[in-house]
Amino acid sequence: MSRTVHVDLGERSYEIHIGSDLLPGGALAGEAGIRALIVSDSHVDPLYGARCEAVLRRQGIEPRRTVVPAGEASKELPQVQRLYEAALDAGLDRRSVIVALGGGMIGDLAGFVAATYLRGVRFVQVPTSLLAMVDSSVGGKTGINLPRGKNLVGAFYQPVEVTADMSVLESLPPREYRSGLAEVVKYGVIWDAEFFADLEAKAEGLLGREASLLEGVVTRCCEIKAEVVGLDERESGVRAVLNFGHTLAHALETRFGYRDLLHGEAIAVGMAFAAELSVAVKGFSREDGNRLIRLLRRLELPVSLSELKEPVTWDTVRDLMRSDKKARQSVPRFVLAERLGSVIFGCTVPEEVQQSVFASFPRE
Ligand SMILES: NC(=O)c1ccc[n+]([C@@H]2O[C@H](COP(=O)([O-])OP(=O)(O)OC[C@H]3O[C@@H](n4cnc5c(N)ncnc54)[C@H](O)[C@@H]3O)[C@@H](O)[C@H]2O)c1
Question: What is the average pLDDT across 15-25?
Answer without folding.
Answer: 83
